[in-house]
Amino acid sequence: MSTTAKTKTPKAQAKTPKAATSASAKRTKAVKKGACKLFVLDTNVLMHDPTSLFRFEEHDLYVPIMTLEELDNNKKGTTEVARNTRQASRMLDEIVSTSPNGIDEGIALDLPSHGLATGRLFLQTEAIDIVLPAALPTARGDNQILAVVTHLAERHPAREVILVSKDINMRIKARALGLAAQDYFNDKVLEDSDLLYTGTRELPADFWESHGRGMESWKEESHTYYRLSGPLAPDMLVNEFVYENSGDNPLQAWVKERDGRKVLLETLVDYSHQRNNVWGIIARNREQNFALNLLMNPDIDFVTLLGQAGTGKTLLTLAAGLTQVLESKRYSEIIMTRVTVSVGEDIGFLPGTEEEKMAPWMGALEDNLDVLNGTAGEGGDWGRAATRDLIRSRIKIKSLNFMRGRTFLNKFLIIDEAQNLTPKQMKTLITRAGPGTKVICMGNIAQIDTPYLTEGSSGLTFVVDRFKGWAHSGHITLQRGERSRLADYAADVL
């Protein structure tokens, strides 16, 4: 049996007040292992993922009246939360309208979910009078939902009744009352961000001995190709970078094709050498070289770059964009956007046009353009000023709020601070890409500022996991900071 993304109940319940301990112990003994569970949904679960109604498979759901009240209070507006709230309300209306026998006995979910869920949906149809501790006033919506969970746990002693909430404090209060509570796991791509695909693989020292039998090798232009098979070949993904540092000739290559137990490796362009500089920028470490190979390759339509502050994500991306817009004319212009989530308090409304309003959020763009403008060659102050004006004329700054319905043709689209996007917002942005457009998502999943988003449920984590292995996408996690020794030390110790 499965629940959201995993079905097990928390292994250890928190210590409960004496009044609740004995009742909780009796309920725990009475619960039949393996019985169909009853999940009570908190409002924030539906506001975060309206499709959560269909994510519990064979288990039953219960929606309290207070959850519906809070949905009604949050339905107005143009924010992502308001849109999700309205969608959740529409889905509930659609489910209820399909029930021929009313809602008292529960509504079967198999038909409205098209077989994704086989449990039943119960709506609160009666007034529930449960006495909560004096410290929990019933005027609060959260406490009324806790009262409903307590009532259901007493009414169904043979079933496991579990509160599902994204609110940590709500779950703590539930456990303090002797009630089972869980987070909503279905939106998490990974439980541990350390398991996230890095885009690189270090080859063992005996790689050529174990994979060299029957190997084919040839050269085309400046690249060397190796077609080989072996124990590691089936695990490699297309566009995954492989490297080997042992011996006199270190290897840096990427997987271009995979056919069963055979893979085709292609050596990389060495962007760490000055002759291959990109707008005056060279790669300072192995991961930056991998990133530039992705950014400069016209066959790669979608690139994701992860890394902490100072690893060079924005600088490398802008350098690659300027080279391909102004020199090779591969793209018509650079479009840069980012999520406007402030670190501290909001400074209020900003005057001006869309680009002028976005300007305070684009400090990183200005800083990196100053660096790149200094690498544009010797032309004196006049030459640098002309270059700066030319660069700024080919970079457009857009707000995320006005992306819906647009199509970008032949553009170099940069999405900065992508870790603050939800998977749905990320889908909205990436599907704006028209023919000839390249999309680059950058971010640091350790710096998420959006409520209810975690490293495992961020839109950036979502696309890294979903796009891995596609022939026209690539991902690199940048490891080493190259900003300054002060920045590197602060990132490690603070």
Automatic annotation (TrEMBL):
Pfam family, one: PIN_4
Top-level taxon in the UniProt lineage: Bacteria
Keyword Cell wall biogenesis/degradation: no
PIN domain span: 37-172
Annotated Gene Ontology cellular component terms: cytosol
InterPro entries for this protein: P-loop_NTPase, PhoH, PhoH2-like, PIN-like_dom_sf, PIN_dom
SMART domains on file: PINc (SM00670)
Composition-biased stretches (Low complexity): 1-25
Keywords of the record: ATP-binding, Nucleotide-binding
MF-aspect GO terms: ATP binding
Region of interest (Disordered), ranges: 1-26
Keyword Transmembrane included in the entry's annotation: no
SUPFAM superfamilies documented for this protein: P-loop containing nucleoside triphosphate hydrolases, PIN domain-like
Family per similarity comment: Belongs to the PhoH family. In the N-terminal section; belongs to the PINc/VapC protein family.
Name of the protein this chain belongs to: PhoH family protein
